[in-house]
Amino acid sequence: METDNKKNNEMVVAFERNNYFYGKLLTVDDFQTEQDYFHRKSLLLNRELEGSGILSGLDVSNVIKKEDDNLTMNITAGEALDSCGNLIIMNRNKASIKNNSLNEILYLYIEYKECKKDSVESITKGESCDENCCSNRILETFELRLYTSKENHKGVFLATLEKNENSDTYIVKSSERKIIRSNQEIDNDVTAHINSTDNPHRVRADQVGAIKSINLIQSSGGDIKLESKDKTIKILPDDDNKSINIELSETVLEQLHLEITSIKSNLNMVLRFLMDKALKYKLKAFSSVLEHFESRVAIDIVKRVKEAIDNRIYLSEKDFLTLMRHLAEQESKLIDEIKAEALPTQLELYEKAIAGLKKAMRTGNLFAIAVAQDEVCERAEWLVPRVERVEVPNIVSLDIQEAQTILAREGLLVGKQSYTISEDAPENTILTQTPDAGTEVVKGSEINIEIAVRPEKVEVPDLINLDRYDAEYKLIDAQLTLGVVVVEETSDDIEEGTVLYQEPLPNSEVDPGTAVN
């Protein structure tokens, strides 16, 4: 079994889940396997798709040292992901932590922690309290830790705390902490910056000491010289055109060229990041589609995206755009393939997202395509099969065999059967049904029935040495019901679940529907 502290560079263990079938005996290992399957997959997706860092909140302030060396502080409620993929949730705003260090600078981390709770007594008796008592719940919580260095800690960094010389307070520095940003936030920031040609950094005139006026040409803000000390920049008024001319030396122009080159390089890195994220999100979204539908189109999309990720196609804008155009056609074909099975409202939203993607494709703008592709993937994850509902037929007064045939015709099942003595209704006919006739239910639902039996006595079968399930079937065949079940400890020679005693005794004659304890 994979542990929670699995490192990113370890080989991912193949996932294994339960296969359920009628009559399967479930043990603790089966339930643990069920939990491990979803837990490990969640950790893997968190590590590979999100990384580690702070999702929201967790801002630190008002750190004060108390007389008992404890540090009290305000930390806003929030969430984080550690390097193992564990989701850490802090749901309170105040905290206290023991400080045993004399260092003036401390590093505050939040770490994932599991606490066992709700101790209950096990039905299997052991020799010690530890063997008899087991925890009924595992609480996923957190722990705040202080370190004297920032290296090799499994938690998420929150802040650096520097001791004030003249007080018991600490200066909080949190500029180095890592924030996990959503694709939508990154897309919005990048797109806004690229499309803004009018002061994208929103710099005010007073922040840069802009010119107040040159020959009555006004500009609000501070005041600067019209010529730099090293003569590399000159600002000259043009009285005829009522404008300002800026003259730059070759040195400044060369520096600007280097800055622009650096910006272009960084922009290319952001673009590659968005393309990589788009592919990974598409893989996740259409793998989700395959969990709900048998779709050849989705299989082809998943296959091609896996190949693209393996071949690092996001390094080439041309190849990425070609792939996106092909996938957009396949994603459009998915609508017709699952139209008869998918929930109409969700399919309509997916279809609108596809239309938005095609519109972005026509622009050729990779940033716009990445944003539109993100919308398509989100809508694809929401695609689910429609639930077929049927009307419950009236089976009251029908023979049990005829009732079963009618229910099967509507895709319904016979549920719990109870027997009631009736002198008026024919034997083995239905007296009542639940739900009532005319009710709409999900196809495959069970209909509980009450069956009429004659008041003649029936013989109690011998249940001694049978297991519980065989005993229940034998009671049903005898028109009897199971009453109180008492569990007793026995020697190891007797198999668990074996009937040791019954009441009424075997071969007794009782009314139909009598409970046998």
What does this protein look like?
There is one protein chain. Among the domains are: 51-173, Sandwich (Triple-stranded beta-helix), CATH 2.60.520; 268-367, no CATH class; 389-453, Trypsin Inhibitor V, Chain A (2-Layer Sandwich), CATH 3.30.10.20; 459-517, 2-Layer Sandwich (Trypsin Inhibitor V, Chain A), CATH 3.30.10.20. The chain has 517 residues and is α+β, with helices and mostly antiparallel strands. Helix 3 packs antiparallel against helix 9 and helix 5 (250-292) packs parallel to helix 9 (366-381). It contains 11 helices and 23 strands. Residues 1-9 and 214-225 have low confidence and may be disordered. It has a 4-stranded antiparallel beta sheet with strand order 8-7-9-10. The protein has a 3-stranded antiparallel beta sheet with strand order 1-4-5. Strands 2-3-6 form a 3-stranded antiparallel beta sheet, with no helix packed on it.
Write the layout of secondary structure elements.
Blueprint: H1 28-50, E1 53-56, E2 60-65, E3 70-75, E4 78-81, E5 87-90, E6 94-98, E7 105-121, H2 129-132, E8 133-147, E9 156-163, E10 170-173, H3 183-195, H4 205-208, E11 213-214, E12 217-218, E13 233-238, E14 243-248, H5 250-292, H6 296-310, H7 317-338, H8 344-363, H9 366-381, E15 389-391, H10 400-409, E16 413-421, E17 430-434, E18 440-442, E19 446-453, E20 458-459, H11 468-477, E21 481-482, E22 509-510, E23 515-516
